[in-house]
Amino acid sequence: MFFDLLKNELKIRSFSPRTVEAYLYYNQDLLNFCQKGPTEIRESDIKRYIQYLLGERKVANATARLALNAIKFYYLKVKKRRFNYLFAINLPKRPRRLPVVLSKLEVRQLLSVVKNAKHKLILALMYSAGLRVSEVVKLKAEDIDLENKIVWVRQGKGRKDRQSIISEKLVCVLGKLIKNKTVGQYLFPGQKLNTHLSSRSVEKIFSRALNSADIKKRATCHSLRHSFATHLLEDGTDIRYIQQLLGHKHLETTQIYTRVSNQRLKEIKSPLD
Questions:
Q1: Taking the CB of residue 14, how many other CB atoms lie within 10 A of it?
Q2: Nearest to 100 by CA among 218, 253, 252
Q3: Residues 25, 44: Cα–Cα separation, whole Å
Q4: What's the distance, CA 237 to chain centroid?
Q5: The whole model's pTM is what?
Q6: In b/e form, how buried is each residue of 35-66, taking b as 16+ CB within 10 angstroms?
Q7: For the residues 227-246, what does the mean pLDDT come to?
Q8: SS3 for the chain, per residue?
Q9: Which of 144, 210, 200 is nearest to 172 (CA)?
Q10: What is the rounded distance in angstroms from the CA atom of residue 164 to the CA atom of residue 128?
Q11: 59-81: per-residue pLDDT in tens?
Protein backbone atom coordinates (compact mmCIF):
# COMPACT_ATOMS: atom_id res chain seq x y z
CA MET A 1 0.00 0.00 0.00
CA PHE A 2 1.57 3.29 -1.17
CA PHE A 3 0.09 5.46 1.54
CA ASP A 4 0.43 3.44 4.76
CA LEU A 5 3.16 5.82 5.96
CA LEU A 6 0.98 8.82 5.11
CA LYS A 7 -1.95 7.39 7.02
CA ASN A 8 0.21 6.64 10.05
CA GLU A 9 1.80 10.10 10.03
CA LEU A 10 -1.59 11.81 9.87
CA LYS A 11 -2.87 9.75 12.79
CA ILE A 12 0.26 10.44 14.86
CA ARG A 13 -0.33 14.16 14.32
CA SER A 14 -3.98 13.76 15.38
CA PHE A 15 -5.52 14.84 12.07
CA SER A 16 -9.28 14.38 12.00
CA PRO A 17 -10.69 11.25 10.30
CA ARG A 18 -12.21 13.45 7.59
CA THR A 19 -8.84 15.07 6.84
CA VAL A 20 -7.11 11.68 6.78
CA GLU A 21 -9.68 10.45 4.27
CA ALA A 22 -9.26 13.53 2.08
CA TYR A 23 -5.44 13.41 2.12
CA LEU A 24 -5.43 9.75 1.14
CA TYR A 25 -8.01 10.34 -1.60
CA TYR A 26 -6.21 13.21 -3.33
CA ASN A 27 -2.83 11.51 -3.27
CA GLN A 28 -4.33 8.37 -4.82
CA ASP A 29 -6.28 10.49 -7.32
CA LEU A 30 -3.03 12.17 -8.39
CA LEU A 31 -1.49 8.76 -9.17
CA ASN A 32 -4.61 7.71 -11.08
CA PHE A 33 -4.53 10.91 -13.10
CA CYS A 34 -0.84 10.63 -13.96
CA GLN A 35 -0.77 6.82 -14.26
CA LYS A 36 2.45 6.81 -12.25
CA GLY A 37 3.76 5.56 -8.91
CA PRO A 38 4.74 7.95 -6.10
CA THR A 39 8.47 7.82 -6.90
CA GLU A 40 7.78 8.90 -10.50
CA ILE A 41 5.71 11.99 -9.66
CA ARG A 42 7.26 15.29 -10.70
CA GLU A 43 6.33 18.88 -9.99
CA SER A 44 4.91 19.23 -13.48
CA ASP A 45 2.56 16.30 -12.75
CA ILE A 46 1.25 17.99 -9.62
CA LYS A 47 0.71 21.25 -11.45
CA ARG A 48 -1.18 19.50 -14.27
CA TYR A 49 -3.33 17.69 -11.73
CA ILE A 50 -4.29 20.90 -9.91
CA GLN A 51 -5.07 22.55 -13.26
CA TYR A 52 -7.20 19.52 -14.15
CA LEU A 53 -9.15 19.78 -10.89
CA LEU A 54 -9.87 23.46 -11.45
CA GLY A 55 -10.39 23.36 -15.22
CA GLU A 56 -12.09 20.04 -16.03
CA ARG A 57 -13.60 18.88 -12.75
CA LYS A 58 -14.58 22.45 -11.83
CA VAL A 59 -13.83 21.96 -8.16
CA ALA A 60 -14.03 24.90 -5.78
CA ASN A 61 -10.85 26.82 -5.01
CA ALA A 62 -10.94 25.51 -1.46
CA THR A 63 -11.04 21.93 -2.74
CA ALA A 64 -8.04 22.51 -5.02
CA ARG A 65 -6.19 24.03 -2.07
CA LEU A 66 -7.02 20.98 0.05
CA ALA A 67 -5.73 18.67 -2.68
CA LEU A 68 -2.48 20.64 -2.98
CA ASN A 69 -1.99 20.63 0.80
CA ALA A 70 -2.56 16.86 0.85
CA ILE A 71 0.03 16.31 -1.87
CA LYS A 72 2.53 18.67 -0.25
CA PHE A 73 2.20 16.88 3.05
CA TYR A 74 2.89 13.48 1.54
CA TYR A 75 5.86 14.40 -0.65
CA LEU A 76 7.48 16.98 1.63
CA LYS A 77 6.74 15.64 5.12
CA VAL A 78 6.49 11.88 4.55
CA LYS A 79 8.61 11.13 1.49
CA LYS A 80 11.06 13.99 2.26
CA ARG A 81 11.19 14.99 -1.39
CA ARG A 82 12.55 18.40 -2.29
CA PHE A 83 10.58 20.31 -4.90
CA ASN A 84 11.84 23.72 -6.00
CA TYR A 85 8.56 25.30 -7.07
CA LEU A 86 5.77 23.29 -5.44
CA PHE A 87 4.99 26.07 -2.99
CA ALA A 88 4.88 28.54 -5.87
CA ILE A 89 1.80 27.00 -7.50
CA ASN A 90 -0.62 29.91 -7.60
CA LEU A 91 -4.21 29.10 -6.73
CA PRO A 92 -7.07 31.58 -6.96
CA LYS A 93 -7.40 33.63 -3.80
CA ARG A 94 -9.81 32.34 -1.20
CA PRO A 95 -13.01 34.40 -1.51
CA ARG A 96 -13.66 36.51 1.59
CA ARG A 97 -17.25 35.68 2.44
CA LEU A 98 -19.07 36.85 5.51
CA PRO A 99 -20.66 34.14 7.66
CA VAL A 100 -24.41 33.56 7.35
CA VAL A 101 -26.09 34.68 10.57
CA LEU A 102 -29.66 34.04 11.64
CA SER A 103 -31.50 36.74 13.55
CA LYS A 104 -32.77 35.98 17.05
CA LEU A 105 -36.29 35.77 15.63
CA GLU A 106 -35.17 33.31 12.95
CA VAL A 107 -33.47 31.13 15.59
CA ARG A 108 -36.73 31.05 17.57
CA GLN A 109 -38.66 30.17 14.41
CA LEU A 110 -36.17 27.42 13.59
CA LEU A 111 -36.42 25.82 17.02
CA SER A 112 -40.20 26.17 17.17
CA VAL A 113 -40.77 23.93 14.13
CA VAL A 114 -38.68 21.03 15.50
CA LYS A 115 -41.09 18.62 17.17
CA ASN A 116 -38.59 15.95 18.27
CA ALA A 117 -37.38 17.02 21.74
CA LYS A 118 -33.89 15.55 21.34
CA HIS A 119 -33.42 17.14 17.93
CA LYS A 120 -34.54 20.51 19.30
CA LEU A 121 -32.08 20.16 22.18
CA ILE A 122 -29.19 19.49 19.80
CA LEU A 123 -29.88 22.64 17.77
CA ALA A 124 -30.52 24.71 20.89
CA LEU A 125 -27.21 23.57 22.41
CA MET A 126 -25.31 24.48 19.25
CA TYR A 127 -26.79 27.97 19.29
CA SER A 128 -26.71 28.62 23.05
CA ALA A 129 -23.09 27.47 23.49
CA GLY A 130 -21.59 28.21 20.05
CA LEU A 131 -20.78 24.56 19.38
CA ARG A 132 -19.65 23.03 16.14
CA VAL A 133 -21.70 20.09 14.88
CA SER A 134 -18.69 17.81 15.45
CA GLU A 135 -18.58 18.99 19.06
CA VAL A 136 -22.24 18.66 20.00
CA VAL A 137 -22.48 15.04 18.82
CA LYS A 138 -19.50 14.03 20.99
CA LEU A 139 -20.81 15.50 24.24
CA LYS A 140 -20.89 13.08 27.16
CA ALA A 141 -22.71 13.13 30.49
CA GLU A 142 -19.63 14.35 32.37
CA ASP A 143 -19.22 17.31 30.00
CA ILE A 144 -22.33 18.99 31.40
CA ASP A 145 -21.95 21.04 34.60
CA LEU A 146 -25.49 22.13 35.37
CA GLU A 147 -24.62 23.76 38.71
CA ASN A 148 -22.31 26.26 37.03
CA LYS A 149 -24.16 26.21 33.68
CA ILE A 150 -21.02 25.17 31.83
CA VAL A 151 -20.46 22.74 28.98
CA TRP A 152 -17.02 21.27 28.44
CA VAL A 153 -15.83 20.79 24.87
CA ARG A 154 -13.18 18.08 24.97
CA GLN A 155 -10.56 18.06 22.24
CA GLY A 156 -12.38 20.42 19.90
CA LYS A 157 -10.85 21.86 16.76
CA GLY A 158 -7.09 22.05 17.16
CA ARG A 159 -7.26 19.32 19.84
CA LYS A 160 -8.06 21.89 22.52
CA ASP A 161 -10.37 21.72 25.53
CA ARG A 162 -12.56 24.70 26.31
CA GLN A 163 -15.62 25.73 28.29
CA SER A 164 -18.76 27.41 27.05
CA ILE A 165 -22.04 28.49 28.59
CA ILE A 166 -25.36 26.67 29.00
CA SER A 167 -28.62 28.54 28.66
CA GLU A 168 -30.85 28.64 31.73
CA LYS A 169 -33.66 27.42 29.46
CA LEU A 170 -31.81 24.15 28.82
CA VAL A 171 -30.87 23.27 32.40
CA CYS A 172 -34.05 21.32 33.14
CA VAL A 173 -34.13 19.28 29.93
CA LEU A 174 -30.39 18.54 30.16
CA GLY A 175 -30.85 17.47 33.76
CA LYS A 176 -33.46 14.93 32.72
CA LEU A 177 -31.26 13.68 29.88
CA ILE A 178 -28.10 13.11 31.91
CA LYS A 179 -30.00 11.64 34.88
CA ASN A 180 -30.03 8.24 33.20
CA LYS A 181 -26.54 8.52 31.73
CA THR A 182 -23.35 7.11 33.19
CA VAL A 183 -19.84 8.51 32.82
CA GLY A 184 -18.57 7.95 29.31
CA GLN A 185 -22.00 7.74 27.68
CA TYR A 186 -22.78 10.06 24.79
CA LEU A 187 -25.68 12.46 25.26
CA PHE A 188 -26.82 11.74 21.71
CA PRO A 189 -25.99 8.10 20.91
CA GLY A 190 -25.87 6.64 17.43
CA GLN A 191 -27.59 3.51 16.22
CA LYS A 192 -24.61 1.27 16.95
CA LEU A 193 -23.44 0.49 20.46
CA ASN A 194 -21.00 3.01 21.99
CA THR A 195 -21.24 5.40 19.06
CA HIS A 196 -22.54 8.95 18.88
CA LEU A 197 -25.01 10.52 16.47
CA SER A 198 -23.32 11.39 13.18
CA SER A 199 -22.67 14.96 12.10
CA ARG A 200 -24.54 14.21 8.88
CA SER A 201 -27.67 13.32 10.87
CA VAL A 202 -27.55 16.69 12.64
CA GLU A 203 -27.05 18.49 9.33
CA LYS A 204 -30.21 16.81 8.03
CA ILE A 205 -32.12 17.84 11.17
CA PHE A 206 -31.03 21.43 10.67
CA SER A 207 -31.84 21.43 6.95
CA ARG A 208 -35.36 20.13 7.55
CA ALA A 209 -35.94 22.71 10.27
CA LEU A 210 -34.67 25.52 8.02
CA ASN A 211 -37.13 24.50 5.29
CA SER A 212 -40.03 24.08 7.72
CA ALA A 213 -39.37 27.52 9.20
CA ASP A 214 -39.36 28.95 5.64
CA ILE A 215 -36.02 30.68 6.20
CA LYS A 216 -34.49 31.58 2.84
CA LYS A 217 -30.91 32.24 3.99
CA ARG A 218 -28.24 29.79 2.84
CA ALA A 219 -27.60 28.74 6.40
CA THR A 220 -25.91 25.59 7.69
CA CYS A 221 -25.42 24.09 11.14
CA HIS A 222 -22.38 26.33 11.51
CA SER A 223 -24.66 29.35 11.16
CA LEU A 224 -25.89 28.63 14.70
CA ARG A 225 -22.33 29.10 15.97
CA HIS A 226 -21.99 32.29 13.90
CA SER A 227 -25.30 33.53 15.30
CA PHE A 228 -24.20 32.77 18.87
CA ALA A 229 -21.10 34.94 18.48
CA THR A 230 -22.88 37.76 16.64
CA HIS A 231 -25.74 37.99 19.11
CA LEU A 232 -23.35 38.04 22.08
CA LEU A 233 -21.44 40.86 20.41
CA GLU A 234 -24.62 42.81 19.73
CA ASP A 235 -25.65 42.35 23.38
CA GLY A 236 -22.43 44.02 24.50
CA THR A 237 -20.28 40.99 25.44
CA ASP A 238 -16.56 41.76 25.28
CA ILE A 239 -15.09 40.25 22.11
CA ARG A 240 -12.27 38.59 24.06
CA TYR A 241 -14.80 36.60 26.07
CA ILE A 242 -16.45 35.57 22.81
CA GLN A 243 -13.04 34.50 21.50
CA GLN A 244 -12.59 32.30 24.56
CA LEU A 245 -16.06 30.74 24.29
CA LEU A 246 -15.51 29.93 20.61
CA GLY A 247 -12.01 28.58 21.21
CA HIS A 248 -10.39 30.87 18.63
CA LYS A 249 -6.60 31.04 18.85
CA HIS A 250 -6.41 34.51 17.30
CA LEU A 251 -8.63 37.49 18.06
CA GLU A 252 -8.63 38.37 14.36
CA THR A 253 -10.71 35.25 13.69
CA THR A 254 -13.38 36.42 16.13
CA GLN A 255 -13.36 39.96 14.80
CA ILE A 256 -15.15 38.89 11.62
CA TYR A 257 -18.36 39.04 13.67
CA THR A 258 -17.95 42.79 14.01
CA ARG A 259 -18.56 42.89 10.25
CA VAL A 260 -21.83 40.97 10.34
CA SER A 261 -23.30 42.56 13.46
CA ASN A 262 -26.11 44.86 12.32
CA GLN A 263 -26.74 46.57 15.65
CA ARG A 264 -25.08 49.79 14.49
CA LEU A 265 -26.68 49.55 11.07
CA LYS A 266 -30.10 49.59 12.69
CA GLU A 267 -29.26 52.95 14.25
CA ILE A 268 -28.40 54.55 10.89
CA LYS A 269 -31.20 56.23 8.98
CA SER A 270 -31.34 55.83 5.22
CA PRO A 271 -31.35 59.18 3.37
CA LEU A 272 -34.66 58.11 1.82
CA ASP A 273 -36.18 58.15 5.29
A1: 10
A2: 218
A3: 20
A4: 23
A5: 0.74
A6: eeebeebeeebbeebbebbbeeeebeeeebbb
A7: 91
A8: CCCHHHHHHHHHCCCCHHHHHHHHHHHHHHHHHHCCCHHHCCHHHHHHHHHHHHHCCCCCHHHHHHHHHHHHHHHHHHCCCCCCCHHHCCCCCCCCCCCCCCCHHHHHHHHHCCCCHHHHHHHHHHHHHCCCHHHHCCCEHHHEECCCCEEEECCCCCCCCEEEECCHHHHHHHHHHHHCCCCCCECCECCCCCCECCHHHHHHHHHHHHHHCCCCCCCCCHHHHHHHHHHHHHCCCCHHHHHHHHCCCCHHHHCCHHHHCCHHHHCCCCCCC
A9: 144
A10: 9
A11: 988 899 899 999 999 998 888 88
- Outline which parts of the chain fall under CATH 1.10.150.130: 4-88
Q: According to the model, what pLDDT value does residue 133 have?
A: 94
What's residue 155's pLDDT? Answer: 74
Domain with CATH 1.10.443.10 in the chain: 104-263
The answer as to CATH 2.40.30.10 being correct for domain 4-88 is: no
The CATH architecture annotation of domain 104-263 reads Orthogonal Bundle (1.10)
Of 47, 35, 94, 55, nearest to 75 by C-alpha is 47
Angstrom distance (rounded) from CA 117 to CA 21: 33
- Residues tagged active-site: 132, 157, 222, 225, 248, 257
pLDDT tens-digit series, residues 143-157: 999 999 999 998 766
Whether the pLDDT of residue 250 is over 70: the answer is yes
62 in Cβ contact with 56 (< 8 Å): no
